[in-house]
Every structure is written in C-alpha cells, then in structure tokens.
Prior knowledge:
Blueprint: H1 2-6, H2 11-20, H3 26-38, H4 43-65, H5 67-74, H6 92-97, E1 103-106, H7 110-121, E2 126-130, H8 133-141, E3 146-148, E4 167-170, H9 175-187, E5 193-197, H10 204-209, E6 214-216, H11 218-231
Parallel strand pairs: 1-2, 1-4, 2-3, 4-5, 5-6
Amino acid sequence: MAIMGVMGYRKRTGFLAGLTVAQISEFSLILGALGLSLGHIDVNTMGLITLVGLITISASTYMILYSYPLYLRLAPWLGVFERKKAHLKKDHGLLKQDLNIEVIVFGLGRYGAAISRELRQKGYRVLGIDFDPEVVRGFEEEGCSVCYGDAEDPEFFASLPLESTQWVISAVHEKSVTLVLLQGLQNYDYKGQVAVAARKISDVKPLTQAGADQVLIPYEDGAAQAIDHLFGGKIEHKAS
C-alpha cells in the first residue's frame, strides 16, 4: 500500500492490490526447499515458511472475496497510505461542474459502448465511465465525455453530477459490482432512474430489490428484438 500510495494511486486501489499479494506463494516453498537442500536454512525455518504459506494462502482467499466490506471497515485508517492529490482523482472535480449530463453509463465494453453511442446519436448528453484506461483514452479520442472510474469505489459517486442526471445505466454484468453500484447511488441519494445489465434471469429479482428500476439481459433482449424485427411481432405457431 505504501508503494501504491507513492505512485499516486488511491487508498482503495492500494488496499485491493495489497490483498492480492498478501500471501506468500507456493514458489516460496520451492525456494525454501532449495535453501534447505543447500544447507542455507534448517528444518525449523522450512517448517515456519510452510506454516506461513498455508495461513496466508488460506486467509487471502477470504480477504479477496470479502474485500469490499473489509475496505469499508478499514477505510478511515488507510488515508495514511494515500497522497493528498492522488493522480487518478484529478478529473473528479471537473465532473461536478458538468451539470448538463443526462445519462451516465458505467462500463464501456461492447454492450455499454453501443448503448452510449446510440444515446449520443439520439441527442442525449452522456458521460461514459470505465475502469480500463485504454478504453477511456479511446473514447476521449472520439471526442466523447468519458472518465476513469470504478463502480465499486464508494468515494467516486461524490464526484458525479447525480443531481442533473436522469438515468444511470450500468452495462457491467457482474452481479456483485452492480449491487455495490446500486448501494453507492442510494448512499448519495440519487433520485433518477437506474438500469442495470445482468447475465441471468435469476438475477433480476435481487437487483430489482436492491434498487434497479430496469434490468437488461443482453442476450434475452437481443433475441426478442431480433424476433420482432424478423416477424414483425406476429408469429403464428402451428401445432403438428
């Protein structure tokens, strides 16, 4: 976390990166075995390396799975690892000043990019948000309103012009990320409409209960639209 902080990353990014490298890997056991065979370490030291490996490998699995609640509990004490001006926060102040945004689209993959471009063609003022710097750079070259952001970052929502936004659309398919996004919008008292994407029909109910106004299932919706396009919405089924 100290290294990530010096590089200018936010405390959340440093915390998540720290969790992924918190364990000593199985490669440490290979190195330990080599040291033991060469006489550089004794059996007791090798046993200690093995014990630490088993503990950290097991613990890190659960720490990564529960990284979000862990971060929420520890965030007040993690500021010491963060610069006062983290480099990825530089655009956040500008977002608040743009009060003309009508639609915010999270996730600019194939599905989210298509939604964003279609909305722009229809005259909506759209702000695209993605966690991939290369994707953000590509949309900037197209002249689109776009910024780097993480839907799982609870602090990021404070920088968004939610007061003027009519719709927030999430094209992120991961249910866990979507639930965090919905909670973040509720925490900042967002009053507009929310549409989210899902992989399965079984995800519709929990996402709706979490605050989504509409749940989009790309393949299901695409299939229904294709049928309407091919048959004009009129299909006569003839029993054999």
